[in-house]
Design a protein that fits this description.
Blueprint: E1 8-10, E2 13-15, E3 22-26, E4 33-38, H1 42-59, H2 64-80, H3 82-93, H4 97-114, H5 117-120, E5 124-130, E6 133-141, E7 144-148, H6 162-167, E8 171-175, H7 181-192, E9 201-203, H8 208-216, E10 220-226, H9 229-241, E11 245-249, E12 254-258, H10 264-276, E13 286-292, H11 295-308, H12 328-343, E14 347-351, E15 367-370, H13 377-380, E16 387-393, H14 396-404, E17 408-409, E18 411-415, H15 419-428, E19 433-436, E20 452-453, E21 456-457, H16 464-470, E22 472-480
Parallel strand pairs: 7-8, 7-10, 8-9, 10-11, 12-13, 12-18, 13-16, 15-16, 18-19
Antiparallel strand pairs: 1-2, 3-4, 5-6, 6-22, 11-21, 14-15, 17-20
Helix pairs in contact: 1-8, 2-4, 3-4, 3-7, 10-11
The protein binds nicotinamide-adenine-dinucleotide.
Length: 489
């Protein structure tokens, strides 16, 4: 059967790619070939950029109250097609249908928040900064802006950027991950129904060549990136060297601190969901559980039971709780890291029933490695698979010190019944997102999606106020209207 190849969307219409290279997109649960995605050349990327550039002068003049009407329509279309989009996410990413629904819900929430642009975009002013002189700060759009997004949240992450960008009067280019292009393709089919002016929203497929074209184009004013730390670092440096505004979310290695006074049953259930949900491929997934003092024994037993009870399989089966990792290479990489951890002295304390019977998919079973040495590769490497390491310390101070030693700073959580310990943790832990008795501290759309250290390069984050500030330029106007110049009417 002929496989449809993905097309770019720009100038308000679909364009087949003239690319010489196409990448296979495969269902990670079955290895079924789903589609092929073009590796756009710099010339193709330039066509997309010029479409966005041409649309900007008129779009910025459309009143913000009119601009958000398109977003209200988009919200309704996303709701109407909610189940179909969730299914596509599961097909190409492998996560369970419920996990797909969850990320789409957060995507829609971002559209809703961006509908507040008439309030969010407002500046401020002050009369009589000097007698008869007033000063005003106005927010104006930047121009063409682009977002480069990863494979693990194909529906949600583009919406950390897209709705805010266009609500603020910019024109926007999405370069989705070449591993999950179908979700973006389907969403752009819905966007096509909005009757937006051509060029306001554009879709560019590809990899490094397409990204480099966006980074070097003088017509692209700002770049948002979400993905691994090495690429985040590269994009941050490149975009900055071309004088662009840039925000780059990178990788993660998230810790959870378990105190002896925590409810072990509940904590283990929540930590298990955080570590193994989405097959550990969440940037907020817990990767290291640090038990304090006597918490060790109680937590170990409960987390082993929780991990062993997870049903692994094809995410389209509603009884399944964990799907595959994204690719064969990913599976091999994760399994190699597990073996390396064991060679370095960690003890395998839980592995749910073998994934051998699950067919051809890229399945890795939920795995717990106990006693990982703090200086081992496993302890500092982002595994991005369903693997939880457990480490033991004697005090909260020692736990916070261990977390602070990580080069990443995306998220950390504490499980405790002590307000004092929780406060100390919130105050001292150097991560951008913090959970207290919460396993996945994922900020809602009206808060910035934070991240520190090697997990974020930039100043303004995605979502909420930060999104609006990122996509607008502040202009300050100082006015004097001398009465002596006034004509008398
Ligand atoms: P990735 O870095 O491989 O790819 C992300 C995007 O960058 C894709 O669109 C890809 O086409 C592009 N890209 C890849 N290599 C490139 C290169 N050399 N030059 C230019 N562009 C390139 O990331 P991924 O594997 O798709 O996603 C997983 C990673 O994303 C994990 O490290 C995860 O922690 C991170 N992530 C972080 C957050 C966060 O908020 N901090 C959120 C989600 C995912």
């Amino acid at each position: 059967m002929a496989i449809e190849t993905q097309q770019h969307y720009y100038g308000g219409t679909w364009h087949p790619s003239a690319a010489e290279q196409f990448t296979d997109v495969v269902n990670p649960a079955t290895q079924e070939l789903l589609t092929q995605v073009p590796d756009a050349s710099a010339d193709e990327a330039e066509d997309v950029i010029q479409s966005a550039r041409a649309a900007f002068p008129e779009w910025r003049r459309v009143p913000v109250g009119t601009r958000i009407q398109y977003l209200f329509k988009l919200k309704n279309l996303l709701e109407e097609h909610f189940e179909r989009i969730s299914e596509i996410v599961t097909l190409e990413n492998g996560k369970t249908r419920n996990e797909s629904r969850g990320e789409l819900r957060r995507a829609i929430e971002n559209v809703e928040v961006a509908c507040g642009a008439p309030m969010l975009m407002q500046g401020y002013n002050l009369e009589d900064i000097s007698p008869g002189i007033d000063e005003t700060m106005i927010r104006q759009p930047l121009g063409v802006v682009a977002a480069i997004t990863p494979f693990n949240f194909p529906a949600m992450i583009p919406f950390w950027f897209l709705p805010y960008a266009i609500a603020c009067g910019n024109t926007f280019i999405l370069k989705p991950s070449e591993r999950v292009p179908l979700t973006a393709q389907y969403i752009f089919e819905l966007i096509h129904q909005l009757d937006l002016p051509p060029g306001v929203l554009n879709l560019l497929h590809g990899g490094k060549a397409a990204v480099n074209a966006l980074l070097s184009s003088p017509d692209v004013r700002a770049v948002s990136f979400v993905g691994s730390t090495p690429v985040a670092r590269y994009i941050y440096a490149q975009a900055a060297s071309y004088g662009k505004r840039v925000q780059c979310q990178g990788g993660a290695k998230n810790h959870v601190l378990i105190l002896p006074d925590a409810d072990m049953e509940m904590s283990a259930r929540i930590v298990s969901d955080s570590a193994f949900g989405c097959a550990g491929q969440r940037c907020l997934a817990v990767s290291v559980a640090v038990t304090v003092g006597e918490a060790r024994a109680g937590f170990a037993a409960k987390i082993r039971d929780a991990a062993a009870s997870i049903k692994v399989g094809n995410g389209l089966d509603d009884s399944v709780q964990m799907g595959p990792v994204i690719s064969r290479e990913s599976r091999v990489r994760v399994e190699d890291l597990i073996h390396k951890g064991v060679r370095e002295g960690a003890k395998l304390i839980a592995e749910s029933p073998s994934a051998k019977d699950l067919g051809a998919g890229n399945f890795v079973v939920p795995t717990i490695l106990d006693g990982v040495a703090p200086d081992s590769a496993l302890s500092s490497t982002e595994i991005f698979g369903p693997v939880l390491s457990t480490v033991h310390v004697d005090s909260v101070e020692e736990g916070v010190k261990l977390i602070a030693a990580s080069s990443y700073g995306n998220a950390a959580s504490i499980f405790t019944n002590s307000g004092r310990a929780a406060r100390q943790f919130k105050y001292e832990v150097p991560t951008g997102n913090v959970g207290v008795n919460v396993g996945v501290a994922a900020p809602l759309a009206y808060f910035p999606f934070s991240g520190w250290k090697d997990s974020f390069f930039g100043t303004l984050h995605g979502q909420g106020w930060d999104g609006v500030a990122f996509y607008t330029e502040e202009k300050v106007v100082i006015e004097r209207w001398p009465t002596s110049w006034s004509r008398k009417f």
